[in-house]
Design brief:
Blueprint: H1 6-21, H2 26-40, E1 45-52, E2 55-62, E3 73-75, H3 79-87, E4 91-93, E5 115-123, E6 126-135, H4 143-163, E7 182-185, E8 187-190, E9 193-200, H5 215-239, H6 247-259, H7 262-273, H8 278-293, H9 299-320, H10 326-329, E10 335-339, H11 344-348, E11 355-360, H12 368-376, E12 380-382, H13 387-390, E13 396-400, E14 405-408, H14 412-434, E15 449-454, H15 462-466, E16 471-475, H16 478-481, H17 489-503, E17 508-511, H18 526-529, H19 541-546, H20 548-561, E18 566-571, H21 577-596, E19 604-611, H22 615-618, H23 620-623, E20 629-633, H24 634-642, H25 660-675, E21 680-683, H26 690-699, E22 703-706, H27 708-719, H28 723-735, H29 741-751
Parallel strand pairs: 9-10, 10-11, 11-12, 15-16, 15-22, 16-17, 17-18, 18-19, 19-20, 20-21, 21-22
Antiparallel strand pairs: 1-2, 1-6, 2-3, 4-5, 5-6, 7-14, 8-12, 9-13, 13-14
Helix pairs in contact: 1-2, 1-4, 2-4, 5-6, 5-7, 5-9, 7-8, 8-9, 14-27, 17-20, 20-21, 26-28
Length: 757
């Protein structure tokens, strides 16, 4: 028969329940399991492989040679079965031998079978075995049959765990590979350094019973757990200690939206209908979600799936009555949290006095947990491979997110070097803090403007903390990225007004929304946003001019928020003068509309362009008469000039801001802008590095907009620099570039007492 309804799935589970309840030994039970599944899916073969001593061993089969049982073994990644276990994914093939991972084992006698479908048997988020079916005729198995296999896999997982048939959590495969000191690399998500002991988040619950005795009783348990979970989330969102209206508040609102999602609860109900317990039904739906996550390339959509994972873990803990997380058990000492990934609410549960840092096996710069961690001031390192295998519970960790690394079980010399660096960092921060009230004036008396880049409401606090001159780049797209739906004009207006209020009399340059490309939005059509080369695709001003309703709403919000004070607005990724003119016309039309209704307007509107596309430099003479200011976005500009993705590890050495090609190109922009009286600001990472910032000043740049953490070091550099002495030297270097300009700049700085971080 073919599995086609919840009732037939329930029938299979009932038969499996009888098998598990019998007094037969584990091998006999597994033999019965493969027979039941083979019959239910009309498959001539049903086989079960279990992970023992690091290899997948054929443990039971219907249809293959019985002589192969306990003889055929596959390494993780070997053959179709090994591939399923290693990648924790499903395979459904009408012609197994055509798959590149196919490996023939002659002792099994499987050469006459064509179709193949297999699912991982999962325990504690890792594959402990594989359940597969085969058929002589080429055919793909139906989705409902695959669903049935996955459900059976859960039941088998319980059986084999209780019988101790597979590598357990204390096996060699699950212990740290070594007890020696080591350095692990990752991606810096939130800046900072921290010392603490490894604590595993451990949100997963061990499910003891998978087959339901009373379906309606299981349904009532799930309904009750949903009600309690939603109450917890509502309370948490109301008590978040970040002030009112921050982007992290919007993150929690999105998180609440998932908690109340009827589609999610419906899928869990359907799993209960098939005969699973409440815990198993939640886990079953989550297994499906995790497999979907592995196929998602869109980082923002993947982040939202992680929120759903967080909620499912919470629901599991409630329905099972188990605590489950280190947060609920309490941190007894300074801790660095280890997890595959985290949801924002799970992070908020930890004692902030003890939680010193977070290390994630996954994670991204746009993940909701990253946003919340930044607001909490907790350093985060993401994308650390095999972190849960290489780090043991209680290991001493030295986290240096600034250097994208963590030191595990450090040696005495590692600890000494880390503590010295931490002390030096603290000493430097203290010296930079002492400069807060002093102006960034060079030794020869030239005043440099130092501003900060921002994107969150809370970032405005950096103005007072650093003594910066203003916000040279406010990225307005962040509000769009963390929202589940397009932000309403009123909400945009409230954010812009709050930023202006916090800045007081200091200027704020608002960059209009830069979305598209790699900043995909869930509420825009996938065919609009997905591209092979997102950095150079349909994004930023290109999107805004085509979707002019989006820009009109943002223009109204900015104009109304700036009533009674100056407004500085900048358009990103301008490629040709007409794009700037079209964008400015949208703003001017909105200004006319507001004025016609006698509503207050900004006292002044200054329009600027962001030069990131090299083509704009070729017609800059046509645009400069229209500009009030110009900003150079060095991050995108450099990768466009070099045709080198700045995130590509093999191209990192070629992505040098102190290349003569970059510096000469920048001078081509600076000189005509100065002649037209148009102020030029450099925005981006280049201006936040002291040696690169010194080179920019030598080119004639007098305005920098950088990360808040860069203000102190760059100000110290400025105050130690004789700019009049540097500029003619820079001219000579650009006319006749030395072999290593970076080296020459460093030597000059050292010889002239310039303070570099």
């Amino acid at each position: 028969m073919t599995v086609s309804t919840a009732s037939s799935a329930r029938e299979i589970l009932t038969r499996l329940h009888d098998v598990m309840a019998s007094r037969a030994n584990a091998q006999t039970k597994l033999n019965q399991v493969v027979n039941i599944i083979g019959e239910a899916t009309s498959s001539e073969v049903c086989s079960l492989y279990l992970l023992r001593d690091g290899a997948l061993e054929l443990f039971a089969t219907r249809g293959l040679s019985q002589e192969a049982v306990h003889v055929t073994k596959l390494a993780l990644g070997e053959g179709l079965v090994g591939s399923i276990a290693e990648r924790v994914e499903i395979l459904n093939l009408d012609e197994a031998a055509a798959h590149p991972d196919f490996a023939y084992k002659p002792e099994t006698g499987e050469e006459r079978f064509h179709s193949f479908a297999g699912v991982p048997i999962i325990r504690r988020e890792r594959a402990v075995g594989v359940l597969c079916v085969q058929h002589t005729e080429p055919r793909r198995y139906e989705d409902l049959e695959i669903e049935a296999l996955q459900t059976v896999g859960m039941v088998v997982s319980e059986l084999i765990a209780n019988a101790g048939l597979v590598d357990g959590p204390e096996s060699a495969a699950n212990r740290p590979a070594s007890t020696a000191a080591l350095r692990l690399a990752g991606q810096k998500l939130v800046d900072g350094m921290a010392r603490g002991f490894a604590v595993f988040h451990q949100p997963r619950i061990n499910i003891e019973h998978t087959v339901a005795e009373d379906i309606e009783a299981e349904r009532r348990r799930v309904y009750s757990a949903f009600a309690k979970m939603r109450e917890q989330i509502d309370t948490m969102a109301a008590q978040a200690e970040f002030g009112v209206g921050g982007e992290h508040e919007e993150v929690l609102e999105t998180y609440k939206m998932f908690a109340y999602d009827e589609g999610w609860s419906r899928r869990i109900n359907e799993a209960i209908d098939s005969g699973l317990t409440a815990e198993a039904a939640i886990e079953r739906v989550q297994q499906r979600t995790r497999m979907r996550m592995r196929q998602i390339d869109d980082p923002l959509l993947a982040d939202r799936m992680h929120d759903l994972e967080d909620l499912a873990n919470r629901l599991l803990r409630i329905v099972s009555g188990q605590l489950g997380t280190a947060a609920q058990m309490g941190l007894r000492q300074d801790a660095i949290l280890i997890a595959r990934n985290l949801g924002p609410a799970e992070l908020l549960e930890y004692d902030r006095r003890r939680l010193k840092g977070v290390i994630l096996e996954e994670g991204s710069l746009t993940a909701h947990v990253t946003i919340v961690a930044r607001a909490m001031g907790v350093p985060v390192l993401g994308r650390v491979k095999d972190v849960r295998r290489l780090i043991g519970e209680g290991d001493l960790l030295l986290l240096d997110a600034n250097q994208s690394a963590v030191f595990v079980r450090p040696s005495a010399s590692m600890e000494e070097a880390f503590e010295a660096k931490l002390a030096l960092s603290q000493k430097r921060r203290a010296s930079y803090a002492a400069l807060r009230g002093l102006p960034p004036v060079t030794r020869d008396g030239q005043r440099i403007t130092l501003m900060v880049n921002a994107g969150l409401r809370d970032d405005a606090a950096a103005l007072d903390l650093t003594g910066a001159d203003g916000i040279g780049l406010f990225r307005t797209e962040f509000q769009f990225l963390v929202s589940a739906t397009l932000p309403q004009r009123e909400r945009q207006q409230r954010l812009y007004r709050d930023i202006l209020d916090a800045a007081r009399d200091r200027p704020v340059v608002f960059r209009t929304v830069d979305i598209g490309g790699d900043k995909a939005l869930p509420y825009m059509r996938p065919d609009d946003m997905g591209e092979e080369n997102p950095a150079m695709g349909w994004r930023a001003l290109r999107v805004a001019l085509e979707r002019d309703g989006l820009m009109k709403a943002q223009a109204r919000a900015l104009l109304e928020a700036s009533a009674g004070r100056p407004l500085h607005v900048m358009f990103p990724m301008v490629s040709e003068p007409w794009e700037f003119e079209a964008a400015k016309a949208i703003f001017e039309a909105q200004r006319t509309w507001i004025a016609s209704r006698n509503r207050p307007l900004p006292t002044q509107i200054r329009y600027g362009a962001m030069l990131e596309v090299p083509a704009l430099a070729e017609c800059l003479d046509l645009l400069l008469p229209e500009l009030d200011f110009l900003s150079i976005g060095t991050n995108d500009l450099t990768q466009f000039l070099f045709a080198a993705d700045r995130a590509h590890p093999k191209l990192a050495e070629r992505y040098d801001w102190l290349s003569p090609a970059i510096l000469r190109f920048l001078r081509r922009i600076i000189v005509p802008a100065r002649d037209h009286g148009v102020p030029v600001t450099v925005c981006g990472e280049m201006g936040g590095r002291t040696l690169e910032a010194m080179a920019l000043l030598g080119l004639g740049i007098e305005r920098l907009s950088i990360t808040p953490i860069g203000i102190g070091p760059v100000k110290a550099m400025v105050r130690s620099l004789d700019l009049a002495a540097l500029r003619p030297v820079m001219e000579g270097w650009l006319a006749n570039p030395p072999r290593n300009l970076r080296q020459e700049l460093s030597r000059w700085a050292e010889d002239h007492g310039v303070e570099l971080a």
